[in-house]
């Protein structure tokens, strides 16, 4: 072999050896990264769940913000399904003792006592949201302000519960089926309107209305991903009410810190991480939403279930969490077609704007 050929052979062997090391190192690095990713996403272990006697999520459909005839989701979906849903919500609320058939406006707006009573009447579970008023009362309401549900731009945290009782949800001229409310031109801030109306309720009163008849999914609401004394107060007061409640419930939150709170303070409660897929962006802190959507903060709370936007049921992180033992809950399904599309990926469903057919989902 010539000197030139020998040198070429040594070079080839060196390159091959170097390539092999690169592949090996890359594989090791990738394996470590994959392992860390799986560790981060992993839910609570079955051993831990059994140790703390954690109950399963009851197998029913969950009415988003109650069975409501005004509010969330009523601007989308199939018209015929939406109309049937609104009529049924109204019928169930009236049957439960709220409003009357000749009442012109909404009888059971979202997150009202009437909407929760209607859900109980229909036998659906309920998904609801809790936050604090200015005077530290735990109330049930989704948005941070009342603009969409009452036409009132004031924020929940700036109002006392007494003030909230004088603000009707979806006041006239609102009609059944409306998604958004308008502030009446003749409104008076400090005077309760006459006649029938629903207002933002106390969580305590909601629990009295439900009285264990149907299961609850309780979402703790937060403004971003920070943590303040007010957030501690919400956790403590919300949990105090749930401790005294004699009925089935689970909790969930978009904030990993809230799920972690239950991990540390109430390990016997079934807890869930809310999330949705998002695009990475440095603007307005959207990168935090993106990271949470990847479920990589599951290690903080080790949730029992993942409640995910139904469009993202086929996301790798959702499938992995489910494979590792997490239950999956879809939100918010608004038509029979959407239910059929997401059913393969989810164990439970939160719905609105249509009447779900058990045959189309996984609920038996």
Automatic annotation (TrEMBL):
Biological processes annotated in GO: lipid metabolic process
Xref: SUPFAM superfamilies: PLC-like phosphodiesterases (SSF51695)
Pfam families: GDPD
Coiled coil (residue ranges): none
Annotated InterPro entries: GP_PDE_dom (IPR030395), PLC-like_Pdiesterase_TIM-brl (IPR017946)
GO terms for MF: phosphoric diester hydrolase activity
Domain of life (superkingdom): Bacteria
GP-PDE domain residues: 93-362
Annotated protein name in UniProt: Glycerophosphodiester phosphodiesterase
């Amino acid at each position: 072999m010539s000197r030139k050929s020998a040198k070429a052979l040594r070079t080839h062997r060196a390159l091959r050896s170097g390539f092999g090391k690169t592949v090996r190192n890359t594989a090791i690095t990738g394996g470590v990264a994959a392992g860390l990713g799986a560790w981060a996403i992993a839910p609570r272990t079955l051993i831990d769940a059994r140790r703390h006697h954690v109950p399963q999520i009851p197998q029913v459909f969950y009415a988003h913000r109650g069975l409501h005839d005004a509010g969330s989701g009523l601007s989308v979906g199939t018209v015929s399904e939406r109309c049937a849903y609104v009529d049924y919500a109204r019928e169930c609320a009236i049957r439960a003792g709220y409003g009357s058939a000749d009442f012109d406006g909404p009888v059971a707006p979202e997150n009202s006592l009437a909407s929760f009573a209607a859900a109980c009447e229909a036998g659906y579970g309920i998904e609801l949201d809790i936050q604090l008023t200015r005077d530290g009362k735990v109330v049930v309401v989704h948005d941070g302000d009342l603009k969409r549900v009452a036409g009132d731009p004031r924020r929940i945290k700036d109002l006392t519960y007494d003030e909230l009782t004088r603000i009707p949800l979806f006041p006239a001229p609102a009609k059944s089926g409306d998604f958004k409310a308008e502030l009446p031109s003749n409104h008076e801030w400090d005077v309760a309107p006459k006649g029938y109306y629903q207002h933002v309720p106390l969580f305590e009163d909601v629990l009295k209305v439900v009285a264990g008849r149907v299961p609850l999914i309780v979402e703790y609401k937060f403004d971003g991903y920070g943590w303040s004394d007010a957030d501690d107060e919400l956790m403590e007061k919300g949990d105090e009410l749930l401790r005294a409640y004699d009925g089935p419930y689970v909790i969930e939150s978009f904030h990993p810190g809230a799920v972690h709170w239950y991990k540390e303070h109430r390990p016997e409660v079934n807890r869930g991480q809310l999330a949705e897929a998002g695009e990475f962006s440095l603007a307005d802190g959207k990168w935090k939403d993106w990271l949470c959507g990847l479920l990589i903060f599951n290690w903080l709370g080790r949730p029992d279930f993942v409640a995910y936007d139904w469009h993202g049921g086929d996301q790798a992180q959702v499938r992995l969490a489910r494979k590792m033992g997490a239950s999956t809950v879809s939100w918010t399904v608004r038509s029979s077609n959407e239910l059929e599309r997401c059913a393969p990926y989810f164990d439970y469903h939160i719905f609105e704007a249509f009447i779900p057919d058990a045959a189309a989902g996984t609920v038996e």
